[in-house]
TrEMBL record:
Domain Tyrosine specific protein phosphatases: 65-122
Catalytic activity entry: O-phospho-L-seryl-[protein] + H2O = L-seryl-[protein] + phosphate; O-phospho-L-threonyl-[protein] + H2O = L-threonyl-[protein] + phosphate
Record organism: Clarias magur
An MF annotation (GO) of this entry: MAP kinase tyrosine/serine/threonine phosphatase activity
The protein's name: Dual specificity phosphatase 28
Residue ranges annotated for the Tyrosine-protein phosphatase domain, each copy included: 3-144
Length: 197
Protein backbone atom coordinates (compact mmCIF):
# COMPACT_ATOMS: atom_id res chain seq x y z
CA UNK A 1 0.00 0.00 0.00
CA UNK A 2 1.32 3.42 -1.00
CA UNK A 3 1.26 5.79 1.95
CA UNK A 4 2.99 8.82 3.42
CA UNK A 5 2.82 8.43 7.20
CA UNK A 6 2.34 11.70 9.08
CA UNK A 7 4.80 12.30 11.92
CA UNK A 8 3.88 15.97 12.45
CA UNK A 9 1.70 18.37 10.46
CA UNK A 10 4.71 19.16 8.24
CA UNK A 11 6.74 15.93 8.34
CA UNK A 12 6.07 12.52 6.81
CA UNK A 13 7.98 9.23 6.68
CA UNK A 14 7.64 6.59 3.98
CA UNK A 15 9.32 4.01 1.81
CA UNK A 16 10.89 4.95 -1.51
CA UNK A 17 8.00 3.73 -3.63
CA UNK A 18 5.47 5.93 -1.85
CA UNK A 19 7.80 8.94 -1.72
CA UNK A 20 8.21 8.85 -5.50
CA UNK A 21 4.46 8.73 -6.17
CA UNK A 22 3.56 12.16 -7.54
CA UNK A 23 -0.13 11.77 -6.74
CA UNK A 24 0.63 11.15 -3.06
CA UNK A 25 3.11 14.02 -2.92
CA UNK A 26 0.55 16.41 -4.38
CA UNK A 27 -2.18 15.16 -2.07
CA UNK A 28 -0.05 15.86 1.03
CA UNK A 29 1.39 19.10 -0.41
CA UNK A 30 4.97 17.85 0.00
CA UNK A 31 7.62 20.36 -1.06
CA UNK A 32 10.83 18.62 0.05
CA UNK A 33 11.98 14.99 -0.10
CA UNK A 34 14.94 13.77 1.94
CA UNK A 35 16.21 10.53 0.42
CA UNK A 36 18.25 8.64 3.02
CA UNK A 37 19.79 6.04 0.74
CA UNK A 38 22.56 5.41 -1.74
CA UNK A 39 20.47 3.92 -4.52
CA UNK A 40 16.77 4.73 -4.20
CA UNK A 41 15.35 7.19 -6.77
CA UNK A 42 14.27 10.75 -6.10
CA UNK A 43 10.87 12.12 -7.20
CA UNK A 44 10.82 13.33 -10.78
CA UNK A 45 8.61 16.34 -10.10
CA UNK A 46 10.09 19.81 -10.67
CA UNK A 47 7.84 21.14 -7.90
CA UNK A 48 9.74 19.29 -5.21
CA UNK A 49 13.18 19.97 -3.79
CA UNK A 50 15.30 16.94 -2.95
CA UNK A 51 18.18 16.18 -0.64
CA UNK A 52 20.05 12.90 -0.74
CA UNK A 53 21.76 11.59 2.39
CA UNK A 54 23.91 8.80 0.93
CA UNK A 55 23.72 6.00 3.49
CA UNK A 56 23.22 2.25 3.65
CA UNK A 57 21.15 0.56 6.35
CA UNK A 58 24.32 -0.57 8.09
CA UNK A 59 24.88 -0.16 11.85
CA UNK A 60 28.38 1.15 11.07
CA UNK A 61 27.10 3.84 8.70
CA UNK A 62 27.53 7.41 9.95
CA UNK A 63 24.13 9.11 10.05
CA UNK A 64 25.05 11.20 13.08
CA UNK A 65 26.96 13.71 10.96
CA UNK A 66 23.74 14.43 9.03
CA UNK A 67 21.41 14.90 12.02
CA UNK A 68 21.80 18.66 12.48
CA UNK A 69 21.65 19.53 8.80
CA UNK A 70 18.56 17.41 8.12
CA UNK A 71 16.76 18.61 11.25
CA UNK A 72 17.43 22.25 10.37
CA UNK A 73 16.34 21.79 6.76
CA UNK A 74 13.06 20.20 7.87
CA UNK A 75 12.48 23.11 10.28
CA UNK A 76 13.31 25.71 7.62
CA UNK A 77 10.96 24.03 5.15
CA UNK A 78 8.17 24.17 7.72
CA UNK A 79 8.90 27.86 8.40
CA UNK A 80 8.37 28.53 4.68
CA UNK A 81 5.03 26.75 4.82
CA UNK A 82 6.38 23.59 3.19
CA UNK A 83 6.13 19.92 4.09
CA UNK A 84 8.83 17.27 4.07
CA UNK A 85 8.87 13.52 3.53
CA UNK A 86 11.88 11.54 4.74
CA UNK A 87 12.30 8.14 3.15
CA UNK A 88 14.59 5.18 2.57
CA UNK A 89 14.03 1.87 0.79
CA UNK A 90 11.56 0.42 3.29
CA UNK A 91 10.78 3.44 5.47
CA UNK A 92 12.07 1.53 8.46
CA UNK A 93 15.52 2.37 9.80
CA UNK A 94 17.37 5.21 8.07
CA UNK A 95 14.36 7.46 7.51
CA UNK A 96 13.08 6.79 11.03
CA UNK A 97 16.45 7.78 12.46
CA UNK A 98 16.41 11.16 10.70
CA UNK A 99 12.83 11.85 11.78
CA UNK A 100 13.70 11.00 15.38
CA UNK A 101 16.72 13.32 15.28
CA UNK A 102 14.49 16.16 14.04
CA UNK A 103 11.95 15.60 16.81
CA UNK A 104 14.71 15.54 19.41
CA UNK A 105 16.31 18.76 18.21
CA UNK A 106 13.36 20.92 17.23
CA UNK A 107 10.36 19.40 19.04
CA UNK A 108 12.39 18.99 22.24
CA UNK A 109 11.49 15.35 22.73
CA UNK A 110 13.64 12.77 24.44
CA UNK A 111 14.93 9.89 22.34
CA UNK A 112 12.28 7.59 23.77
CA UNK A 113 9.48 10.11 23.17
CA UNK A 114 10.62 10.84 19.62
CA UNK A 115 10.86 7.13 18.84
CA UNK A 116 7.31 6.59 20.11
CA UNK A 117 5.98 9.42 17.92
CA UNK A 118 7.63 7.99 14.79
CA UNK A 119 6.61 4.43 15.69
CA UNK A 120 3.00 5.58 16.12
CA UNK A 121 3.10 7.18 12.68
CA UNK A 122 4.75 4.19 11.00
CA UNK A 123 4.60 0.89 12.87
CA UNK A 124 7.54 -0.68 11.01
CA UNK A 125 9.89 2.16 12.01
CA UNK A 126 12.89 0.71 13.85
CA UNK A 127 16.39 2.26 13.76
CA UNK A 128 19.09 -0.39 13.64
CA UNK A 129 21.34 -0.86 16.66
CA UNK A 130 24.10 1.37 15.32
CA UNK A 131 21.72 4.22 14.47
CA UNK A 132 20.12 3.94 17.90
CA UNK A 133 23.54 4.35 19.52
CA UNK A 134 24.12 7.44 17.37
CA UNK A 135 20.76 8.85 18.50
CA UNK A 136 21.73 8.23 22.14
CA UNK A 137 24.92 10.20 21.55
CA UNK A 138 22.94 12.97 19.84
CA UNK A 139 20.54 13.18 22.78
CA UNK A 140 23.47 13.76 25.14
CA UNK A 141 24.89 16.43 22.84
CA UNK A 142 21.56 18.25 22.63
CA UNK A 143 21.18 18.19 26.41
CA UNK A 144 24.64 19.72 26.74
CA UNK A 145 23.89 22.47 24.23
CA UNK A 146 20.61 23.37 25.92
CA UNK A 147 22.36 23.65 29.26
CA UNK A 148 24.83 26.16 27.80
CA UNK A 149 23.15 28.07 24.93
CA UNK A 150 25.63 29.31 22.35
CA UNK A 151 23.32 31.14 19.95
CA UNK A 152 22.49 34.76 20.70
CA UNK A 153 20.86 35.88 17.45
CA UNK A 154 17.19 35.26 16.71
CA UNK A 155 17.72 32.57 14.11
CA UNK A 156 15.23 29.79 13.48
CA UNK A 157 17.43 27.51 15.57
CA UNK A 158 17.41 30.04 18.43
CA UNK A 159 13.64 30.27 18.39
CA UNK A 160 13.52 26.47 18.38
CA UNK A 161 15.83 26.38 21.41
CA UNK A 162 13.62 28.87 23.25
CA UNK A 163 10.60 26.73 22.40
CA UNK A 164 12.42 23.72 23.87
CA UNK A 165 13.10 25.61 27.10
CA UNK A 166 9.44 26.62 27.32
CA UNK A 167 8.35 23.02 26.80
CA UNK A 168 10.73 21.80 29.51
CA UNK A 169 9.23 24.32 31.95
CA UNK A 170 5.73 23.24 30.94
CA UNK A 171 6.60 19.60 31.62
CA UNK A 172 7.76 20.50 35.10
CA UNK A 173 4.62 22.53 35.73
CA UNK A 174 2.47 19.65 34.49
CA UNK A 175 4.18 17.44 37.02
CA UNK A 176 3.36 19.90 39.79
CA UNK A 177 -0.26 20.49 38.85
CA UNK A 178 -2.56 17.66 39.85
CA UNK A 179 -5.34 16.26 37.65
CA UNK A 180 -7.78 18.72 39.26
CA UNK A 181 -5.46 21.59 38.19
CA UNK A 182 -4.71 22.65 41.77
CA UNK A 183 -1.11 23.47 42.61
CA UNK A 184 0.62 21.24 45.08
CA UNK A 185 2.69 22.88 47.78
CA UNK A 186 5.74 23.50 45.64
CA UNK A 187 7.18 26.81 44.56
CA UNK A 188 8.93 27.45 41.31
CA UNK A 189 11.44 30.22 40.78
CA UNK A 190 13.68 30.99 37.86
CA UNK A 191 17.19 32.28 38.49
CA UNK A 192 19.73 32.87 35.75
CA UNK A 193 17.78 30.78 33.29
CA UNK A 194 17.81 27.71 35.56
CA UNK A 195 14.66 26.30 37.02
CA UNK A 196 14.84 25.47 40.71
CA UNK A 197 12.20 23.60 42.66
Amino acid sequence: MLQLCKVTHSLFISNARSACNDELLQKEAVTLCINVSQQQPCPASDRISTLRVPAYDDPNEDLHSHFDRCADIILDEEARGGRTVVYCKNGRSRSATICIAYLMKHQCLSLTEAYEVVKSARSVAEPNQGFWAQLERYEQELQGKRATPEHKSFSTATISAKTCATKEIQRIINGIIGPDHKFLYTKISVFGGKLRL
